[in-house]
Design a protein that fits this description.
By secondary structure, the protein is α+β, with helices and mostly antiparallel strands. It is built from 4 helices and 10 strands, in the order H-H-E-E-E-E-E-E-E-E-E-E-H-H. It is globular, with a radius of gyration of 16 Å.
Length: about 150
């Protein structure tokens, strides 16, 4: 794929939506592409996460392990989805297993590359911080809706 195709893909990712193409070029240039065959795992639940993956093509089922040892599909995601975005910022574990539902391709964005973008473009850090805060607020609201079930 051409660099411009990767920039166009990254601009579809909500976290990067308000970042201009010149700044996304840094990520697109330094990121790695990876192809997966149908049924191949991208990563496993509980594994240390050192990068995020933007889905370039295909789709992935996201599953979590249940107490009885079986797996539950949480959702299926496709092009433009960013998996494990917090791994670009800090050390975290994968919260689910991602398996290719069809032949697929991802763009791997490692932590040092993302940090480099934040250092070179401080205005991007402001955008990313706002997006992360919005995501956390959305998660908190969802948890608050569930609270009565556990109270």
């Amino acid at each position: 794929m051409a660099l411009n195709d990767d920039i166009a893909l990254l601009s579809l990712v909500p976290l990067f939506a308000d970042i201009d193409d010149d700044k996304l070029r840094l990520i697109a240039f330094g990121a790695e592409r990876r192809r997966l065959n149908r049924g191949q795992q991208l990563f496993r639940e509980g594994a240390p996460a050192d990068c995020a993956f933007a889905v370039a093509s295909g789709s992935f089922s996201l599953t979590r392990s249940l107490v009885d040892g079986s797996a539950q599909t949480v959702e299926t995601v496709g092009r433009g989805t960013l998996l494990s975005e917090l791994a670009m910022i800090s050390f975290v574990e994968r919260k689910f297993t991602a398996t290719a539902e069809e032949d697929s391709e991802v763009i791997r964005i490692n932590r040092p590359l993302f940090r480099r973008m934040l250092e070179e473009y401080p205005d991007v850090a402001v955008v990313v911080e706002a997006r992360i805060k919005d995501n956390l607020q959305t998660m908190i609201r969802a948890m608050q809706k569930l609270a009565p079930r556990f109270g």
